[in-house]
Amino acid sequence: MSTLLLIELGALTLSWPELATDCLKILRHPALLLWIPLLLLLSTALHELAHGLAGRWAGATVTEIGIAWHFPAVFPYCKVEGADFLTSRRQRAVIVAAGPCAGLLTMLPALLLWWWGNEGAFRTVASGLLVAGSFTTAWNLLPLPGLDGYRILSALLNMTELAPESRRYRTLLRRRQNRDRATITVKDYPGWAGLVYRNYPIVAVSTAAVYGYVFSNEAARAAAELTDILFSPAIAAIPIGVAAGVMAFLWAESSVQ
């Protein structure tokens, strides 16, 4: 399955310029836009189900699964308890990574349809789903607290408090000369741990900045397309508002999990 996912990611990366351009066609057919959130909702449901199945496989407990309301959207969720107490880093990482992997697999039929399908509504919806799904999956894999990317990184490094400890370490690093011997100093951290805590904020900010650049660039292209369609700069701001709403939804989703 990992090979299949790598092939899919490679295909999406190589096809992105054409795919992103093709996706703009959906703006000329507003009725087709309704399919995107519905298909993303289905993808999210499979994402959460994969978390639960992986948790059961690893020996954790699935305590709750359902649909949550977090204004202004609804989304599926799955609560897995006991995963943090598993001794295997691999098992903890697999539980978290199962969700994004399932999301990518649900996009595979859309990718095949976009590749080999004829011009028409189905191919247009497929391109929209691929672009929206790629952005939501990429966002979820960022190493930011509350997101799956952060949880995967924490599991692989065996650091459950990566972000808080990183802040604490960098605070101690700024002080350096601490006269209170009862207080922990940077010298009390193992060398590899200090390296991780020192550089984690740089990695997190850098990846988020790259994501933000690509996301804003595509939102601007969508705004320009709407300007061309509707000849109204005010209405052309809609995609930026939608983009902001999507990002707010993703933050809300991560805070509930």
Please provide a written account of the structure.
This protein has ten helices and two strands. With 257 residues, it is mainly alpha-helical. The protein has one domain (2-256). Strands 1-2 form a two-stranded antiparallel ribbon. The longest helix has 40 residues, at 191-230. The model has no long low-confidence stretch (mean pLDDT 82).
Describe what is shown at a glance.
With 257 residues, this protein is mainly α. The protein is built from ten helices and two strands.
SSE layout and pairing:
Layout: H1 2-23, H2 30-33, H3 35-58, E1 61-70, E2 73-81, H4 89-116, H5 121-140, H6 148-157, H7 162-175, H8 191-230, H9 233-236, H10 238-256
Antiparallel strand pairs: 1-2
Supply the helix-strand structural class: mainly alpha
The proportion of residues in beta strands is 5-15%
**β-strand number:** 2
Largest sheet: 2 strands, antiparallel
Report the end-to-end length measured between terminal Cα atoms.
26 Å
* Cα Rg: 21 Å
Number of domains: 1
Q: Give the SSE order as H and E letters.
A: HHHEEHHHHHHH
Q: Uncertain runs with pLDDT below 50, 5 residues or more?
A: none
Whole-number mean pLDDT: 82
**What percentage of residues falls in helices of 4 or more residues?**
over 70%
**How many H/I helices?**
10
Strand order of the largest sheet: 1-2
Q: What general form does the structure show?
A: globular
